[in-house]
Fold:
Amino acid sequence: MIAPVTYPIMTCVALLSGFVDSIAGGGGLIMMPALFFAGAAPLQALGTNKLQSVFGTGIALRNYWRSGLVEWRPNWLTVALVFVGAIAGALIVQLIQMRILNLIIPVLLVASALYILLSPRMTDDDAHHRVTSKGYAPIGSAIGFYDGFFGPGTGTFFSTSLVALRGYGLTKATALTKLFNFSSNVASVLLFALGGHMLWFLGLCMAVGAMAGGWLGSHSALKFGARLIRPLLVTISLALTAKLLWGYFTG
Structure:
């Protein structure tokens, strides 16, 4: 049973998580431990986190869309493949040895953090793209697959790869990240809901906080651009890396 006082507390946690997630991703780094602390079982925590996240991501996507940074037509294939990838990831999550995954993902996150810190391309200026939108779609699908069965760090992987491969400025990459993240979140919510792994009332209470955080975060990203997004991406990458390595070597 979840104590009544848990609902307003988790709504506030969701506000913070939604704020961070709308800028740099990594909201799950805050939300998942909080859900476990609130008494949710592992699958309930995964499902409920996706439920509140889809609302926060949706609000952030709306703000980025209205600013003109989100292009649907050239990215529809990636959106579709991200959705399919997330479905596949959520279906086979129980077949993956999480201990191995917890060692591989920190390597990718450290690489992302180093790229963000050292690359001159991590600005708001667009650059020449290395792959086309269709060429990026399978990469987006792989990240969507990862989001379906694990999740934390998805926003970082999307943003970094969009800058490195598609040549987008950091703010535009962050905006497109929300489009792809929304697709993977919807897929995950559908699957967890069908499986009955959802704390609906808690998730909808948290959705209120997530929407407020998503609105504040996306407006902050639009106002401050790479000056805000870049350090937050690095912080989230290193924090998640430390958490995963700690869990691996102490688990």
Notes: Residues 117 and 231 are 8 Å apart (CA to CA). The chain has a mean pLDDT of 83.
